[in-house]
Write a structure and sequence with these properties.
four-stranded antiparallel β-sheet; two-stranded antiparallel sheet; about 25% helix
């Protein structure tokens, strides 16, 4: 019963937020991932993959986060977000990426295509 009441209050708030002292929630659309993309999120430690200089996966640790997510050898590291901040991947090499990663806060989110 209480949740029904709260749902009604939330609907009224969303219809006229200024009347209730606020603004409606702004839902950010999530970027669409390419078909077959794999996302690996590391909350601590490593993600369990190694890339070649061109950021193509050359090794996946068995039983690691990346293996559990379905990462395959040959996929390319296309995106990286650390601590909620997205980093540009254009022209980055594996050694440069590893250094960036070491200095980045958790959670670390890797996107592969």
């Amino acid at each position: 019963m209480f949740s029904v009441f709260m749902d009604a209050v939330e609907r009224k708030y969303q219809e006229d937020p200024e009347k209730y002292g606020g603004k409606p929630k702004q839902v950010k659309p999530r970027p669409k991932l390419p078909q077959g993309a794999v996302v690996v999120t590391a909350k601590s430690g490593g993600a369990g993959f190694v890339c070649a200089a061109d950021l193509r996966v050359k090794k996946v640790a068995p039983g690691g986060l990346s293996a559990a997510a379905g990462l395959k050898i040959g996929m390319r590291l296309a995106g990286y977000t650390a601590g909620g901040r997205r980093h540009a991947m254009g022209g980055m090499s594996w050694p440069a990426f590893k250094e960036l990663c070491k200095q980045s806060p958790y959670p670390r989110v890797f996107t592969f295509v």
